[in-house]
């Protein structure tokens, strides 16, 4: 009789655990519906790829494998730093005499060797950086202009888009765990494209080897990494 009771007890525990797993999956699907529509659309377009990108962000900016609001703040800070560096490098490439400034003559020379597709952006950046309109961009003007690149509204908007994913924190502990992210993606049909060769390990390696794989756009690698809506 005791063996029967023990057996029934074990069966009940198993069924309860199974019910809990189903509930967790359901909770994740329900929570997914609270996300901004653009983020839901991106998740549905490629749930496997979206999950990989979340894992990539967790590896870079997470805490113990989980994502937190602070994780997304660190990611945004890194993106702002990359934006500043990229804008400074764009103009400093024309500093032919290495004096830390870009004169009108250097500006004109740069336009001669830059590809046509990059000429307008360089010229517009140089004009904007020349705050006192004296026909030359000083080192201070260049630094100020580069810092302005970090204040692009698009950077803040992408950071807010990623922060919205904290709504998937099912147990409200302030951490988005891999299991919570997986629960939110459960039930979405996979993308038609095949996964990278090499199985899970190969896919993870490919993900980690690609800097800024979250999307593509005018912001370069920084924008690509941070955009939850753009394709990858």
Structure description:
- The chain is an all-alpha fold and 232 residues long.
- It has a domain at 2-69 and 169-226.
- The chain has helices spanning 2-32, 37-45, 47-61, 69-92, 104-113, 116-129, 139-149, 153-163, 178-185, 199-209, 220-226, and strands at 102-103, 136-137.
- A two-stranded antiparallel ribbon has the order 1-2.
- Helix 1 packs across helix 9, helix 3 crosses helix 4 and helix 4 (69-92) runs antiparallel to helix 11.
- The termini are far apart.
- Mean pLDDT is 76; it is low at 1-26, 194-224 and 228-232.
Topology:
Blueprint: H1 2-32, H2 37-45, H3 47-61, H4 69-92, E1 102-103, H5 104-113, H6 116-129, E2 136-137, H7 139-149, H8 153-163, H9 178-185, H10 199-209, H11 220-226
Antiparallel strand pairs: 1-2
In short:
It is built from eleven helices and two strands.
Q: Give the quaternary arrangement of the chains.
A: single chain
In whole angstroms, the N-to-C terminal distance is: 60 Å
Q: Treating each run of at least 4 consecutive H or I residues as one helix, how many helices?
A: 11
- Shape, per Cα inertia axes: elongated
Radius of gyration: 24 Å
Give the beta-strand count: 2
Mean pLDDT: 76
Largest sheet: 2 strands, antiparallel
The helix/strand class is mainly alpha
